[in-house]
Amino acid sequence: MEVESNKIKGSGNNYNCQRRVGLIYDERMCSHCAPDGEPHPENPNRIKAIWNKLQNSNISQRCVMLNAKAVEDKLIQAVHSKNHNNLIRNISSKVYASRRNRIASKLNSIYFNEGSSEAAYLAAGSVVEAAEKVAKGELDSAFAIVRPPGHHAEENEAMGFCLFNNVAIATSFLLNERPELGIKKILIVDWDVHHGNGTQKTFWQDPRVLFFSVHRHEFGSFYPANDDGFYTMIGEGPGSGYNINVPWENGRCGDADYLAVWDHILVPVVEEFNPDMIIISAGFDAAVGDPLGGCRVTPYGYSVMLKKLMDFAQGKIVLALEGGYNLESIANSSLACVEVLLENKPIRGSSEAYPFESTWRVIQEVRQKLGVFWPSLADELPTKLTNQNAPHILISSSDSKSEDEGAKLFVSADLVSAVEDVVTSLSNLKVEDQTASTFVPWRSDVSKIDIWYATYGSNMSRSRLLCYIEGGKVEGMKKPCSGSMDGHPPKEILWRTFSHRLLFGRESTHTWGPGGIAFLHPKRDNQCKTHMCLYRITLEQFNDILLQENVSNYDMSSPLFDVDALNSISNKGSISVEAVKEGWYHNVLYLGKEREMPILTMTCPLSVIESFKSGELPLRPPCKEYANILVKGLVEGNQLTEEVAKAYIEEAATEPF
Ligand code: Q9C
Ligand code: ZN
């Protein structure tokens, strides 16, 4: 292929030995922004920050600049409906001005302004342009610094800050419009922290496109919050096996987690698939410091992930920016990626030692599900490997003194070396300001304060409570827990009764499936006597349990329930924890003191009780598995006989208001 020198102007002449890397950036993509100056994470500063970083570190000067251009409607309509195409084409015109905000408000996480149409056309067109140049061999690889992002956009729907699906449009362009370029199989790697639902749907039945997405999922509670991103979604018909989802069970995933997925899922599959080209939906919202992602991938991590992919498709790789909302993080991550493209080796650095236990579980689930399509995934991983886990205990709790060392997650030698690994690797990293999210200072403040955590539901069973501390699940639970940072078991267990009513409500839960779950009425009622199991745990552990009881995207960079809250709750009686107020158990209730230590429980707010009362929310008895574990707790705690415990639960579940 010949280089069209009038279009490609680069100053890379001093660096002849380097690879030809294309870059696209165009100011016009900055004119799409939230109306009325409203702050929004998906804002023009994102691509400006990346562009400035590449310029200031003299990296853009070593690349080939490409011109952004608007995508043609014909290419859009290979992915989107005519209706959707028309909407985005016209949304910025004057005639739409009065309706723009109303239309946006009906969509999921979308805004429009006068600049949206042009930016959307340029974003998609730029990825097409970059992909064509790389496919032709005029460039080795390219990075399209575009916005709005694309991977959430579906055939007939803008969502999740995405208007057109840029990567899907470029992929379908190469396969359907440029057969002469010989690109017959394309791998799409979506490492944005969110699931690429739009891209998945576009190629659901298409075996020419292997779509791979690794994302936070949390059993359908992380955006876009449904089951589309689960590992069971493998494509359909001829596309079966050509859709691979790696759904994280929890946040805080970092280099070790991602690289384990690369080594044990992605790379073996790509060896077999042997793509002609790779397009990366390169969101940087899994980066350390991202406000939406809550993960911890470092620039070094991204550089290794990218380098591993460069060994395929003759290095023909296009990166298209998706999400990423911490300006510094996305600039540093982008810089690392472009350096790898130029030099074909990872940047200097190192990573944390081990993946989470949950990461190995997810990897094994994916391998099992896809082993029939990709033989290299079929073998079981050695336990020697999968037993190497990141400690749940990090710095803060390593010196806390526990009477019961027997049930600790890690023998102390392992812990010491694991902590040392983490410390060493962090000190080797070149990135600034990424320690904050790993060494969370609030944790050491609360790791030495003990409280009584009073439980009235399934946590009355010790094995169930331990799921919140050590991670994992007990029988009947559909969803495992991620555990606490401090993995020490409770220091003491006591039983007491309290004059608050026990009730059961809700249709179903992620954890237990159909049926109600236990709530404690926040107000005293002297007629009632509810059995409660009190665990002496640290205030740090209480915070981690509070988070797990109220599944949310909160990243724990500050405590949910801090020392001030603890000091004031005896006066207030209860505190609603705003950061997790979407959760059912965000209301922390003070029940008194035991040996000078406060007794706390968590339940719903009074308003929810009112909704149960009025019938607006269903009161429902618990499912069999859930009832069984309540009974188990009461029996093992020597509080009631099995028969009496069953009757006790039954009565609480059927008693009307
Ligand atoms: N509770 C990309 O990263 N969050 N999109 C909405 C509503 C939307 C992210 C939260 C996140 C969209 C490209
Ligand atoms: Zn994202």
From TrEMBL:
Keyword Flavoprotein: no
InterPro entries: HDACs, His_deacetylse_dom, His_deacetylse_dom_sf, Ureohydrolase_dom_sf
Molecular function via GO: histone deacetylase activity, hydrolytic mechanism; metal ion binding
Residue intervals of the Histone deacetylase domain: 40-340
Reaction equation(s) it catalyzes: N(6)-acetyl-L-lysyl-[histone] + H2O = L-lysyl-[histone] + acetate
Coiled-coil ranges (or none): none
Entry's family note: Belongs to the histone deacetylase family. HD type 2 subfamily.
Domain of life: Eukaryota
Signal peptide location: none
Full protein name: histone deacetylase
GO annotations of cellular component type: cytoplasm; histone deacetylase complex
Keywords: Chromatin regulator, Hydrolase, Metal-binding, Nucleus, Repressor, Transcription, Transcription regulation, Zinc
Cofactor(s) this protein requires: Zn(2+)
Enzyme Commission code(s) on record: 3.5.1.98
PANTHER family: HISTONE DEACETYLASE 18-RELATED (PTHR10625:SF25), HISTONE DEACETYLASE HDAC1-RELATED (PTHR10625)
Natural source organism: Rubroshorea leprosula
Gene Ontology biological process terms from the UniProt entry: epigenetic regulation of gene expression; regulation of developmental process
Pfam families per the UniProt record, alphabetical: Hist_deacetyl
Protein location: Nucleus
